[in-house]
Every structure is written in structure tokens, then in C-alpha cells.
Design a protein that fits this description.
The complex is a heterodimer of chains A (242) and B (205). Chain A is of the alpha/beta class and 242 residues long. Chain A has 7 helices and 13 strands. The radius of gyration of chain A is 17 Å and the shape is globular. Chain A starts with a strand and ends in a 6-residue tail after the last helix. In chain B, helix 1 runs antiparallel to helix 4. Classes of the chains: A alpha/beta (242), B mainly alpha (205). At the A-B interface, helix 1 and helix 3 of A face helix 2 and helix 3 of B.
């Protein structure tokens, strides 16, 4: 599993883990994000069962297991959180922040020890060391209970399935040519995202935020002006095509 | 260390527990039939009066052991929830062991080794609890087995009594047939379960 640092400051650090060369071919590739402060760490969208062992091995490069205090699941999908039953035994004292809507469903992945912290529809925020992480509502994009994570000091928006791209081969970490990149995103967004109204809502909300990097759960990360380009493209896109 | 073969074994154990629990339904419904038969037979014996004098204590017997079997079966049902959750815990622990071994082969780290030790401890503890539950289960099934042995004995005795009951012979004979039949079905189900338990034990060892 490859790990790349996205942000580093005195208070905390963002690391993206993914592009695991040992990943079985038919499994969709995912980005997992680790945010760590001096004593605490959170894993955003920890991933599926198949990814648990490379993730654990990858994460231990950066943090002590006891420092993993928090998990976050943007929504209920298996590629997001089906590893929960294994994390539950590995970090039994951790808390899982996830949409309140999905609690009864996510618990099916096996949760005896970790504490479920339901996020209200309006969103919320938590502290990680000195850093503040905001849960930004992204409902119906694509899941009916769904959140992004925004870090105002790092200016990173972890956007979950929004901005996801499906590309094969050795995929670079960042989008370099937006027009070229559209082909890998278009079908995904039009087919998976059900609602133009929810989409426009989200675009308006996110335009208020100061964002340097938009980091999705699949594919390349948007940096600098690519973020604005994405928002403009997404605002115009007609979704819910099936 | 846990191999994927052992992981499959843990799942197989889960299937065995499921089989045992499915068989409980057969045992319970046959035991309920037996209890019903005892009640009907008592009515027939009363009507037959002196002709079926020897039959009355027999119906009491049938009633007694069918009630006992129903009771034992419901005790087993209570145990079955525990069995399922323990078998599931063993599957989960085995899975975690498997994943930790993979993680360790990617990167050797003292944290992973500690986790491996902890989860192995956990696995051993859950396996022991499962063994314990299986042990109680076995003794319950042995109880039922004993009850069925007396049921068969009673079926033979009742047949003798039935043949002396004059015009009631026919209906009383069908009672003993019924007992023989039910007892045989229950015995088969219990034997299957004892076999599953035996294999489960072997697998856990
Ligand atoms: Fe999803
Ligand atoms: Fe996804």
C-alpha cells in the first residue's frame, strides 16, 4: 500500500493510503486517509475487509495502534467500512463517526467494542489534537446519509465518492488535466448520484469553503484550480440517468 | 498460526451448529406429538375401562417423558443462541488472526505481534467457551436419548396391553405404533446431532 503525505503542519498531518499493488483485480481501488496529531489519529473511510491487512501494515508506519482513536465512515458502503469487524477487535476503544441514518446497517459489519457516534443530518465537528475537522453534509451523493470531512486549516475536503474516478493501471495521485480526466468520472457521477437538487445544494455549500485539495475516495485528488473546475463541471452535470 | 484452511474449518463449525439447531425442530415437534398422543390415549383407556386397565399407567409414562423431552428441548434452544454467537465469535477471531498474519507478512511490527498474541488468546478463550457449551449440549441430547429408550420400552409394553383391550385393541395399538415411530424419529435426529457434536469436538481440538 502506497502512502503519500498531503499536508503537514505543527499540529497535524494528512496521509493518503491506497493503490495497493496486491489488491485483487475485481475490487474497486480506494483511497484511505489518515489524519494524525501528536497523540491521536483518525482514519477516514477505512475501507473493505480485503484491505484490512495492508492498511494495518501501512498505518503502523505512521502511528502507534493505540493512537488510533477515531474512525470515520462517510456512508455505509462495503468499500468504505466493511473492515469494521476487524478494526473493532484491533482498536476496541476507538469511536466511529458515521451518519446516524446508517447506524443499524453499519452495525451489521460487526461492532462489539467500538462506540458508534452518530452524525446528525446537519453535520458537526470534532477535534483531533489541535485540529478541527468538520463533517459537511453531502446527502444523496451518492448515499442518502453521507458526509464529507473538511479541515479548515489544511484546506482539504475529503469528498468521499464525490469526485471519484475509475481509472486502470498505475494512476497518478493528482489530476493534471481536467478535460482529460472527465472520461473517468462522468459515468460514475451520472449513474451513482441520484439527485440534481442534492448535487446543486452540495455545490453551493462547498463553494463557501476555502479548499486547496479535494480528496475523493476513488482515483485522483484535485488540487488548486482543479477544485474549482470540478465544481463547475459537477454543477452542470445532469445526474440520476438510470 | 491460523491458515485459510482453519478459517474454512471455523465456518464449517458454524454450519454444524446450524444443523444441530435445525434438528431441534424435528425433536420438538415429535415430542409435542407424543404428548398429544398421551392425552388421546388416556381418553381411550378411560373409555375402555377395565379392558385397558394396564394402559393407564402407560399413558402417564408417555406424558411424563414427552413433557421432559419438550423441557429439555427448550433448554437446548436457549443454549442454541449462545452456541451461534460463540461459533460466530470463533469465525471472527479466526478471520482476524488470518488478516493479522497477512499484515505481518507485509510488515513486521511489534504492534502486529502484540495484536496476534491478543487475538490468539481471544480465539482460545472463545473456542473453550464453545467447547463448554457443546459439552452441555451433549449431555442434554444424552438425556433425550435415555428418554427415548424408555419410550421404546413403553411402546412394547403398551402393545401387549393393547392386544388385551378387546374392542379397543385397534385404537390402542395405533397409539403404540405412534410412540414407536416418534421415538425412532427423535432418536435419529438426536443421533445426527451427537454425530455433529462429535465432529465439532474433533474440529475444535
Ligand atoms: Fe459509495
Ligand atoms: Fe466508494
Amino acid at each position: 500500500m502506497k502512502a503519500t503525505e498531503l499536508f503537514n503542519s505543527e499540529s497535524h498531518q494528512w496521509i493518503v493510503l491506497g493503490r495497493d499493488p496486491a489488491k485483487p483485480e475485481k475490487i474497486i481501488d480506494t483511497n484511505q486517509y489518515l489524519i494524525k496529531s501528536a497523540e491521536e489519529a483518525i482514519i477516514l473511510d477505512p475501507g473493505g475487509i480485503e484491505l484490512f491487512s495492508p492498511m494495518l501494515a501501512g498505518i503502523l508506519h505512521h502511528v502507534q495502534i493505540d493512537n488510533i482513536t477515531t474512525l470515520f465512515a462517510s456512508h455505509q458502503d462495503p468499500d468504505i467500512i466493511s473492515s469494521l469487524g476487524l478494526w473493532d477487535k484491533t482498536v476496541p476503544n476507538a469511536k466511529l463517526y458515521a451518519p446516524w441514518l446508517w447506524e443499524g446497517f453499519i452495525r451489521h459489519f460487526g461492532m462489539e467494542n467500538i462506540q458508534y457516534m452518530p452524525i446528525k443530518d446537519e453535520g458537526g465537528e470534532i477535534k483531533l489534537g489541535h485540529a478541527i475537522l468538520k463533517f459537511i453534509p453531502a446527502h444523496y451523493l451518492h448515499s442518502s446519509g453521507n458526509f464529507n470531512v473538511y479541515d479548515p486549516s489544511a484546506k482539504i475536503l475529503m469528498s468521499g465518492d464525490i469526485g471519484a474516478s475509475l481509472e486502470h493501471g498505475d494512476v497518478p495521485l493528482f489530476v493534471d488535466n481536467f478535460a482529460e480526466h472527465i472520461q473517468y468520472m462522468e459515468y460514475f457521477h451520472r449513474r451513482w448520484m441520484p439527485s440534481n437538487r442534492a448535487k446543486n445544494n452540495w455545490v453551493a455549500r462547498v463553494r463557501e469553503l476555502d479548499i486547496d485539495m479535494m480528496a475523493p475516495q476513488h482515483g485522483r485528488i484535485f488540487k488548486g484550480e482543479m477544485v474549482a473546475e470540478f465544481l463547475e463541471w459537477f454543477a452542470k452535470l445532469d445526474v440520476g440517468i438510470a | 498460526m491460523i491458515s485459510s484452511h482453519q478459517a474454512t474449518m471455523a465456518i464449517n463449525n458454524f454450519v454444524r451448529v446450524a444443523n444441530i439447531i435445525t434438528n431441534l425442530d424435528t425433536i420438538l415437534s415429535q415430542a409435542k406429538n407424543l404428548s398429544l398422543t398421551a392425552k388421546n390415549a388416556r381418553v381411550v383407556a378411560l373409555r375402555a375401562g377395565d379392558a385397558a386397565f394396564g394402559f393407564k399407567p402407560i399413558t402417564n409414562f408417555i406424558d411424563e417423558f414427552s413433557t421432559q423431552t419438550i423441557k429439555t428441548t427448550s433448554e437446548i434452544s436457549k443454549l442454541s443462541n449462545q452456541l451461534f454467537s460463540l461459533a460466530l465469535a470463533v469465525v471472527r477471531c479466526t478471520d482476524l488472526q488470518h488478516q493479522l498474519n497477512k499484515a505481518n507478512s507485509i510488515k513486521q511490527h511489534k504492534c502486529i505481534v502484540t495484536l496476534q498474541q491478543q487475538s490468539l488468546c481471544d480465539l482460545k478463550q472463545k473456542t473453550r467457551a464453545l467447547e463448554q457449551a457443546i459439552f452441555s449440549l451433549e449431555s442434554y441430547f444424552e438425556d433425550i436419548q435415555k428418554q427415548m429408550r424408555s419410550a421404546e420400552y413403553i411402546a412394547v409394553t403398551s402393545r401387549v396391553e393393547a392386544s388385551n383391550a378387546g374392542e379397543f385393541s385397534h385404537s390402542l395399538e395405533s397409539v403404540s405404533d405412534f410412540i414407536t415411530n416418534s421415538a425412532r424419529k427423535i432418536k435419529t435426529a438426536v443421533n445426527e446431532n451427537l454425530q455433529e457434536i462429535y465432529e465439532l469436538r474433533g474440529a475444535l481440538r
